[in-house]
Amino acid sequence: MPIDASTRFCAVYGHPIRHSASPAMHNPAMAALGLNWRYLAFELHPDNLRSAIAGAKAMKFIGLNLTVPHKLLALEMMDALDESARTWGAVNTIRFEAKATDGQWQPLHMFSEPPNDIRAHGFNTDADAITRALREDLKFEPRGKSVLLLGAGGAGRVAALKLAQEGVGELHLVNRTTSKAEQLAAELKGVRGHVGYPKNEVDLVLNATSLGLRSTDALPFDPKAFSLSRATAAYDMIYRPAETPFLRAAAEAGCRTANGLGMLLYQGAKALELWTGKIAPISIMREALMKNVYGSSI
Ligand code: ATR
C-alpha cells in the first residue's frame, strides 16, 4: 500500500537503534493485516524522550515501542499504566488512545478521525514473551520445574520474577556479582531463590547474561561447578549469534535448545495486537525477523 495522507505510524525509540530488527518484523505484519500503517525506528537521546512521546501523540501515531535506555524512564511519562508495566516496572509498548462517544478510552485504530485529546497508555510485553518463548520454542512449562538462571541484571531479574509468578518449583540464581543474585532472591515471591549452582539435575538452564554476544566471551557458567549433562533444556536470551557457545555445548550435552529470537518475536506480536486489536501474523513476523537477523529464514 503506498504511503499517503491516511497512512498511520508506529515507531521504536532507542539509543542506540541501528541494529533494531523491529521495523523488519512489523512492516510485513502490518501489510499482511491489510493496514496502511508503517513502523519506523528513531535514534533518540533519553533527554528527548518526553518531547518525542508528546510529538508522536500530537501526530496521532498509533503506538510506540521503547528499547534501551527508555523503558524505565518512560514509566513516569505515561498518562495511564497497564498492570503489566506496573508489575515489571518498565514500559516497552505505548498505545495511544482517545475517548469514544461512550467516554471510554479506545485505541486510535478505532477512530477514522481521532480527536485531539489523546493519552499515552504504557504496557510491558517483555515478561510474557519470556514464558511464551519457553513454552512455544522449547516446550518448557515452568510450573513445578527446577531452573538454573544465569544472570541477575535487568533481563535476569524479570525472568526470575516471571518464572516465580508462573509457579516454578526451584530457582537457582548465579551471577558474576553474587550480591545482585542475593538481592534478587530476596525479592522473589512464591519460590525460594537459591543462590549458587544446583547439586541435582535441573529442567532448564536459562542464560540472561550478555556472555555469548562476542565470539571471545567465556561460557556464562563455571563448567567446573555445573555440567550441562545435568540439564534437560537450555534457553539463551541472546539471538545474535543464532548459536552461542552455551547453546552449542547444551545441544552437545543432549539438551533441547532455543535462542532468544522468540522473545523478540513475542514481545513484538503482543505489541502489534495491542495496537491493532487483531491476532498478530506470527509466522510472517518470525520469517521476516529471521531474514533480517540471519539473512535467511532457515
Ligand atoms: P540486561 O538488561 O541485558 O540484563 P544488565 O542489567 O547490564 O543487562 O545485565 C548483564 C548481565 O550479564 C549481568 O548479570 C552481568 O553480571 P553482573 O551483574 O555481575 O554485572 C552479566 N555479565 C556481563 N558481563 C559479564 C562477564 N564478563 N562475566 C560474567 N557476567 C557478565
* Proper CATH architecture of the largest domain: 3-Layer(aba) Sandwich
Structural class: alpha/beta
Total tally of structural domains: 2
Tally of separate helices: 10
Compute the number of strand runs: 13
CATH topology of the largest domain: Rossmann fold
Percent in helix: 25-40%
Rg of Cα set: 20 Å
Name of the top-level CATH class of the largest domain: Alpha Beta
How would you spell out the order of helices and strands?
Answer: EHEHEHEHEEEHEHEHEEEHEHH
What is this structure's SSE topology?
Blueprint: E1 8-14, H1 22-32, E2 37-43, H2 49-58, E3 63-66, H3 70-73, E4 80-81, H4 83-88, E5 93-99, E6 105-107, E7 118-123, H5 126-138, E8 146-150, H6 154-165, E9 170-174, H7 178-187, E10 193-195, E11 202-207, E12 231-236, H8 245-252, E13 256-259, H9 261-276, H10 282-294
Parallel strand pairs: 1-2, 1-3, 4-7, 8-9, 8-11, 9-10, 11-12, 12-13
Antiparallel strand pairs: 3-5, 5-6, 5-7
2'-monophosphoadenosine-5'-diphosphate (ATR) binds at residues 151-156, 175-177, 180, 208-211.
Notes on the protein architecture:
There is one protein chain. This protein has about 300 residues and is of the alpha/beta class. It folds into 2 domains: about 150 residues, Rossmann fold; about 130 residues, Rossmann fold. It is built from 10 helices and 13 strands. Strands 1, 2, 3, 4, 5, 6 and 7 form a 7-stranded mixed beta sheet that branches. A 6-stranded parallel beta sheet has the order 10-9-8-11-12-13, with helices on both faces. Helix 1 crosses helix 9, helix 5 packs across helix 9 and helix 9 packs across helix 10. The model has no long low-confidence stretch (mean pLDDT about 95). The site of 2'-monophosphoadenosine-5'-diphosphate has 14 residues, from helix 6.
